[in-house]
Amino acid sequence: MPASSPAIRWRCGGCGPVGQFAIRSALMLGAGRVIAIDRFPERLHMAEAGGAEVINYTEGGRVVEHLKDITAGRGPDACIDAVGLESHSDGLSGAYDRVKQTLRLATDRPHALREAIMACRKGGTLSVPGVYGWLLDKVPMGTAFAKGLTLRMGQTHVHRYLQPLLERIENEEIDPRFVITHRLPLEEAPQAYQTFRDKADNCIKVVFKPGL
Predict the structure, then answer these.
(1) pLDDT tens across 18-44, in order?
(2) Cα torsion at 151, 139, 11, 155 (round to 10°)?
């Protein structure tokens, strides 16, 4: 991601491990304001501790309108969809996505992607590190086109970023250990995956260590 001026506002949808690193990366690269969105308190607390403003999307109305209200109607300069194919919504769009997925008329639930497109300012950038599997439905591509958005997505180019990240760790600019909430022996992996899946025990990131 390019360095940002202090005026630039970022919006990160999804505060799992990928979202947490996106939040801190944006601030490290110069973003003046980062707004993080999720519904799990432990994730929102971690995002806030990392310097982000937080929105619990199950409280206080619609996210897109709220983002425009707090950015003087402009919308965030850059939006990050760190959620991907299993994005969650309690509303009508969420029910629609679940029906389409159940009938195998779509493979993914792109609620977070839709909101990112609708919220991002004209000429802004939408980055998608969240994974999508195949077929999406009701994605507002006309809005993305009309706004002239730049879309960036795909698997992270690890070799491109690994060395500069290691240098920042060695210089104590960043410490990636903040995201680890559980350290467990390898034989407890099945139980740990279930804990993570069920969003139990404030689980965000598990590290397995054989012989622990």
Answers:
(1) 999 999 999 998 998 999 999 999 999
(2) -50
The CATH-assigned architecture of domain 9-153 is 3-Layer(aba) Sandwich (3.40)
Structural domain spans, the chain: 9-153, 180-212
Average pLDDT (65-85) is 90
Q: What is the pTM of this model?
A: 0.85
A 10 A CB-CB count for 165 gives 15
Own/partner long-range contacts of 65-69 (Cβ < 8 Å, ≥24 apart): 67/11, 67/35, 67/119, 68/119
Residue-level pLDDT at 2: 39
Please give the angle made by the CA atoms of 98, 80 and 4, to the nearest 5 degrees: 170
